[in-house]
Structures are given as C-alpha cells and as structure tokens.
Amino acid sequence: MKWCTKDIILFNKEKEFVDTVVVPLVPISWDKNMTATVREGEHITILAREIEHQLMGRMVEAPPFTYLKSESMEERMKRLKLWEKNIKESGIGYIFYLTSDVDWNQKNHNMLDMIWLPAVPLEHMEGKARDAYLDETVQDILKVITESWQQFSE
Amino acid sequence: MSNKEHDVTRRQFLNYTLTGVGGFMAAGMLMPMVRFAVDPLLQNKKTGKMVSVVSVDELTDQPQRKTFKVKKVDGWHEFEEQKIAYVFKKKNGDIMALSPICTHLGCTVNWNDPAYPNEYHCPCHGGRYTKTGINIPGTPPPAPLHVYDMKVKDGTVYLGDAHPRGGA
Ligand code: FES
C-alpha cells in the first residue's frame, strides 16, 4: 500500500492483515558528489516501489526518510528512531529500511532491519538488462522480507 | 416600405449567415478542445494492445513465470508497467496465462514454492491456488486468479488484459 489516501483508507480497513512498513532512505547533498547522492536515492526509490507493488497486501511503503549527507550519523539515528517508535505504536511489527547509501553499510546498525544494496548506475543500462537486474534484485529483497515473516510466524 | 422590409431581410440574412459561420468556427475550435479533455477517459476504456510474451515451443504443462511490459495511461501521463504471467498448457492442450495478483489484497503469488509444491502460494497471508488458479477453500483469497486475454500468432503467445472469470 502506498502513502496515498486511497491506500491508507484500505490500510485502516484491513489493518489486521498489514504488519509491515518499508522506509526508503534517501540522502541529499548539493556538493560535487551530488550525482552519486541522487543515484543512491533514485536506485532505492525504484526498488522500494517495486517491493510495495509485489507485497502490497501486507505492507505500507512510507514516504522516504530524507537526510543531508552532512548530517551526523547520531542525528540521523535519533530521527530514525523517532520514526520507528511512531510506526511501532500503530501496531506495525516489521519495519525494513531500504538504502543504497554506503554510510549505512559501513557501520553496524544492528538495532534496525537495514537492507543495503549497492547503487547500480541504472541510467547506463539498456532496457532488457535493466529489467532483468531489477527483477532479480527485487526477488532477493522479497526473499529477505518473506523469510523474516516465516521465522516469526512459526 | 418595401425598402424597409428588404433591410430587415438582409439583416436577418446576415444574422443567420454570421451566426452560422460563427457557430461553425466555434465548433471548429471547441471540438478539439473537448476531444482533448475527454480523450484520456476514452483511452482508459480501450483494451490495451496485446504484447508478445513467449513462444509456444517453450511452453509445457508446468507454469512458467514470464515478465512483459505494457503501456499504461494514467490521465495524461503515459508509463510502462511491468507485468508477470504464469503461462502453461492445460491437459487439453489449451494455453492458459494467469495473473499472479492475489485476489485477497493484491500481493504477488509464486508457483511451486518448495513448501507448497504444485500450487500458487501467496507470501502475504498464505493464500493458495491450484495450478489453474482456483483458490483453495480455507485460505484468504475470495476468488480465482485472473486470466489474461490471450492469442497465438505465428507460434508466439500474445497477452492482453487480465480479467476475473465468471463462475468458478
Ligand atoms: S494478499 Fe494473498 S493471501 Fe492476502
């Protein structure tokens, strides 16, 4: 379910079936690394949309969590924890953070369910190769999510 | 007297002709605008074009997952949407193409998951369907998987829109 009124009305009606939220992490910078920053955000946004599309009956795709690249890890975590607290309070059991930003890969944020994927330069990929790459990557992420569902349901 | 009458008729004549021409011009201007305004609505009703998806030789009695792209129009905005179909040959040889969108809340089902062999299984709430897409009672889905419009031309399977089936 997407962050739009139509889907959220459905979410409130079918709440017993929806226990998962995905949050795309989208960095911002205006310096010489801007292109790379945009690519990281775009890459993860495309994947998040596709994940939502395939698992829409059980999850809500939250609006992206945005942050300046210059924001300290501590600050980001503090804000993210606040998001998490809010979401959990609504009765959601699973929260997955999707990111292509290396910052989140380097440090071990074991308190959060972080799914990290390297930002592939999709703008250089041709139609078929791009589709195949996206399809495969989406399948991998789906696996991570559905496996954690199974673990806890048994 | 007769002159005056003549004037009136001439004025009337001009009136009629000008209204006529003006109306014609107005219609000429408005029609494209009206068409432009309602066109997206008309287009949405049109069934999408059929897309080539797989060659017939590739098909077996086991459903195969195939992806293809269709052009969608949302208002004025046109975009490509990736679709998935499970395509196979039924016992009688007919080709069937199923949409994997779960009829419960819309998740994408998978064929032949190791834990659920020879069935479609929905990862979200455990919905299950038989090979021909019939929902298995006692699982959440209220209806069978939708079936794609299909045609075969020169050994290639073309798919169109997916529809719910009547009955079943
Ligand atoms: S969406 Fe498939 S079982 Fe609920």
Keywords:
heterodimer; A: 154 residues; alpha/beta; Rossmann fold; five-stranded parallel sheet; 5 helices; 51% helix; globular; B: 168 residues; alpha+beta; Rieske Iron-sulfur Protein; 2 domains; three-stranded antiparallel sheet; 1 helix; 36% strand; elongated; binds FE2/S2 (inorganic) cluster
Number of helices of chain B: 1
Q: Which hetero compounds are present in the coordinates?
A: FE2/S2 (inorganic) cluster
Distance between the termini of chain A: 25 Å
Beta content of chain B comes to 35-45%
CATH top level of the largest domain in chain B is: Mainly Beta
Query: What is the total tally of β strands of chain B?
Result: 9
Domain count of chain A, please report it.
Answer: 1
| CATH topology heading of the largest domain in chain B | Rieske Iron-sulfur Protein
Bulk shape of chain A: globular
Mean pLDDT of chain B: 84
Output the number of helix runs of chain A: 5
CATH topology of chain A: Rossmann fold
CATH architecture of the largest domain in chain B: 3-layer Sandwich
Category from helices, strands and their pairing of chain B: alpha+beta
Pfam family, one (chain A): DUF2487
Transmembrane segments (chain B): 13-38
Domain Rieske (chain B): 86-159
InterPro entries (chain B): Rieske_2Fe-2S, Rieske_2Fe-2S_sf, Rieske_Fe-S_prot, Rieske_Fe-S_prot_C, TAT_signal
